Amino acid sequence: MADTTPQTSALSCPSRDWFWIPRVLIPLVLIAAALLKIHQLATQPPLGKGFLASRWVNLAEADFEIAMALWLLSGWARRLSWLASLLMFTAFSVVTATKFIHGEASCGCFGRLTVPPQYTLMLDLAIVAMLAVVRPRTAAWWPFTQWRRFLIAWAIAIPVMVATAIPVLRFSPAKLAADGSLDNADRTVLLEPETWVGRPLPIASYIDIADDLKQGDWLVVLVHDGCAGCRALVPDLAAKARAVGPGRIAKVALIHMPPHTEASEFVYKDALFLNGQIDSSRDWFVQTPAVLRLRDGRVTDVVIALGDANRRKVLDGELPVVAAAESQQTIDASPGSGRAVLFVVRNPGPKPIVIGHVTIRTRDTSGSIVAQNCPGRIPAHSFALVNLSVRTSSESPADWEGEVGLQPGDADTPEIILKVRVRVRH
């Protein structure tokens, strides 16, 4: 059936045909979303695995939005374009509603621009409602007299799609080599923790708690503010860490990805975790939460804790736990013997504590204390482990005491004193 409506220009407004309003407004939304997606693809790597997370699928989605916008603007097959737009934004509404229910920080519809899904959902539903009310006057689904508009639309769309694909194809983020070096000078770095198993922690030279992670077993979690998976995992990890009992501490470290803020949602004021940050001079991209198990600074296992199954895998595993005293400890020793004593020092405050110097004090010559490793800095809302070597003199006749004083560089912060009492057993 031929289209019997009067021939008008692409953006003309025939009497009482209000479909020109969505024909103008919807393309503006689609073109803005497409250009922002293309900018994201040209400046940051896609995260995740699988077909739907590939750069090509995301580029095809942006190109589809451009094609839809040009179709609407051309005025070709207006009734068919109306139906396609209605179905498209209905699908968009379902996707954004799902992301809202799952607590996602951004809908992902506008590239790197963070837009909460509830706002995008309202926009999508408003467009669906507008399309349900405002329909084109034509009764024809497939016009046979407007091929010029169809050809003009595609004559514009194809060069636009080719032009937008060029910066996407040219973009190549830097990646970490086995020794932690970057394979190119690009500011953007893509981290792939799944490839780190069996290697020394590749990001060690870029984080501020690398020295703390070099000894013993650690559970390290890469987190990012706004990450729904992190919100589901970290509170359960915190509950498990608190349940280890007195005189013990779970060796769990959180590495916060940029941008860094003092009000991070994954900071616990009781200094439950060792908190670290990665160098903010680069743009780091990694799928979070990434959970690493370390032994003496080497990665032994990696889990991307997205989804219930992987999150449960992390929570069902044992946390690395050590016995550590808070401020004082009593040990038994025989004359001439040595013991290692571990202390945990907590900083519940909002600012890091920088240790200026360490003072060791013993009351007599019955023994000696050596600080084997002492933190130069205790991050805010975090803890640090202090390992002391305590040796009793071979001629020690009685019990003895000693203490280690950690003097902060800030004069307003009191000295941190760790006391050791040795009961000599002959």
Which features does this protein show?
disordered N terminus, alpha/beta, Glutaredoxin, 426 residues, 5-stranded mixed beta sheet, 3 domains, Immunoglobulin-like
Compute the number of structural domains: 3
Mean pLDDT: 86
Instruction: Please summarize the sheet with the most strands.
Output: 5 strands, mixed
Number of helices: 7
Q: Estimate what percentage of residues fall within beta strands.
A: 25-35%
Strand order of the largest sheet: 6-5-3-8-9
What are the secondary-structure elements, in order, as H or E? HHHHHEEEHEEEEEEHEEEEEEEEE
Termini gap: 108 Å
Based on Cα principal axes, name the global outline. Answer: elongated
Query: Please, what is the oligomeric state?
Result: single chain
The radius of gyration over CA amounts to: 31 Å
Percent of residues in helices: 25-40%
Question: What structural category arises from helix and sheet content?
Answer: alpha/beta
Please sum up the structure shown.
By secondary structure, the chain is of the alpha/beta class.
Walk me through the structure.
The chain is an alpha/beta fold and 426 residues long. It has three domains: 20-170; 188-322, Glutaredoxin (3-Layer(aba) Sandwich), CATH 3.40.30; 328-424, Immunoglobulins (Immunoglobulin-like, Sandwich). The chain has seven helices and 18 strands. α3 (78-101) packs antiparallel against α4. The radius of gyration is 31 Å and the shape is elongated.
Task: Chart the SSEs and their pairings.
Elements: H1 20-43, H2 55-74, H3 78-101, H4 117-133, H5 147-170, E1 174-175, E2 188-190, E3 217-223, H6 228-242, E4 248-250, E5 252-256, E6 274-277, E7 283-285, E8 290-295, E9 298-304, H7 307-316, E10 321-323, E11 328-333, E12 338-347, E13 353-362, E14 367-373, E15 377-378, E16 382-392, E17 400-408, E18 416-424
Parallel strand pairs: 1-2, 2-7, 3-5, 5-6, 11-18
Antiparallel strand pairs: 3-8, 4-10, 8-9, 12-16, 13-15, 13-17, 14-16, 17-18
